[in-house]
Amino acid sequence: MHVVCWRKSVLLLLVFDSWWSANQYADRDVDSIERTIDKHVLHWLDKIKENWISRPGQPKIFDIGRRIHYLTVDIITDLALGEALGYIENDDDTYGLMSTIQQGNMVCQHFSVIHELNTIFFGLAQLPIVKRLVLPSATDKNGLGKIMGVCDHCSNLASSF
Predict the structure, then answer these.
(1) Same domain membership, residue 45 and residue 64
(2) So what's the pLDDT on residue 13?
(3) Cβ count near 121 (within 10 Å)
(4) 100 and 129 together in one domain
(5) What pLDDT does 15 receive?
(6) Are residues 154 and 137 in the same domain?
(7) Residue 27, pLDDT score
């Protein structure tokens, strides 16, 4: 918050508010964040050594971009949900999340440039039949809907305590 004020009490409040907001997003609120990240990075490196080291006469092509996505998804889901989705272990886009995001990015590019399409789609998405056909739901078997289902399952488990 960038406000200049001559009153000391308001200025102190603004400084405290900025400090408190910044601390909300600091890494102190996630238990064992460094240990979790280290665990996944070491597991990722072990999988690279196990599956992707080229041998003489047997070259292997390693797509580091895809594997870093897998590492990132497993770290984020472990920190947020308490358990990784297993992208590193399976060395695969297990729930189709990455492909869904890539397809969605192409669609979003069109919607961000042509605002009329965005308005039309938003209006159509309010209709229940279109919503069921186009938007993801927690009962989907893959993609973003599957991740929504995993989040629902974790929140139901957490609320049962």
Answers:
(1) yes
(2) 40
(3) 14
(4) yes
(5) 43
(6) yes
(7) 53
The region that residue 95 occupies, defined by phi over 0 for left and psi between -120 and 50 for alpha, beta otherwise, is alpha
Structure tokens at 6: 């001559």
How far is Cα 95 from Cα 92, in angstroms, rounded to an integer?
Answer: 9
Contact 105, 56 (CB under 8 A): no
pTM score of the predicted model: 0.64
Its sign, for the CA torsion 127, 130, 131, 132, is positive
Do both 150 and 126 map to the same domain?
yes
Q: Are residues 83 and 55 in the same domain?
A: yes
Instruction: Report the pLDDT value the prediction gives residue 158, as an integer from 0 to 100.
Output: 61
| Residue 78 in tokens | 């472990």
Q: What's the total number of domains in the chain? A: 3
**Amino acid 103: pLDDT:** 79
Q: Are residues 122 and 132 in the same domain?
A: yes
Q: How many residues does the chain have?
A: 161
Separation between Cα atoms, residue 153 and residue 118, nearest integer Å: 31
Domain containing 62 equals 31-94
Neighbours of 151 (CB within 10 A): 14
Q: What is the mean pLDDT of each run of 10 residues along the chain (161 residues)?
A: 40 43 55 89 95 90 91 90 89 84 78 80 84 82 79 70 57
